[in-house]
Amino acid sequence: MLLGRLAKAYPDWGPTLEFASPLELLVATILAAQARDERINEVTRGLFKKYRKPADYVRVPSAELERDVHATGFFRQKAKALKAASAGLLEMYGGEVPASMEELVKLKGVGRKTASIVLGSAFGIPAIAVDRHVARVAGRLGLSKSAEPDRIEEDLRAFFPRKDWVKATWNLVLHGRRTCMPTPECPCCPVLALCPYPKKTKT
Ligand code: SF4
Fold this sequence. Notes:
Mean pLDDT: 97
CATH class of the largest domain: Mainly Alpha
CATH architecture of the largest domain: Orthogonal Bundle
Shape: elongated
Distance between the termini: 25 Å
Number of helices: 11
Structural class: mainly alpha
Bound molecules: iron/sulfur cluster
């Protein structure tokens, strides 16, 4: 019922980062930290024409990669993270993005959230990604009592059927971005009647 109402309210649910391959989604997700997806898409449209394989990120001089991702913010750390993840792909997986959580999180700088996004949206493998929106919404809706992402992920995996994990992720993300923001807009919330949050807003 909860997910049905959210999906009806956010029929455009799904990844907001543009990508055409698992590598592109992995790169876009690494770049998306602390930045708006629209900005990332503006940058990756050019980036993905220039960098097609993990080896391209490894070979390029750091200063050049930093320039190419500058507009995403935190460009030094992000360039470093792209180089490290790409080197890991080459060393461990023959240059291919692996399709399992266990393998993805072995890449430097790739945590469960990034891995879940790649698994769910690039490979169609059920996974729940917990970002700050999902964490906030899950807490308010009483789906998890924890503030710890791994625990929230476990609670959501127990709450939603496995087949709905990707759908649940994107609906919780959109709900957190558009309605259940830090200051929530409860009067126009599609799941108001199902929400136990005690500090609902009235106007
Ligand atoms: S009622 Fe308010 S706090 Fe509860 S989910 Fe909706 S927007 Fe969030």
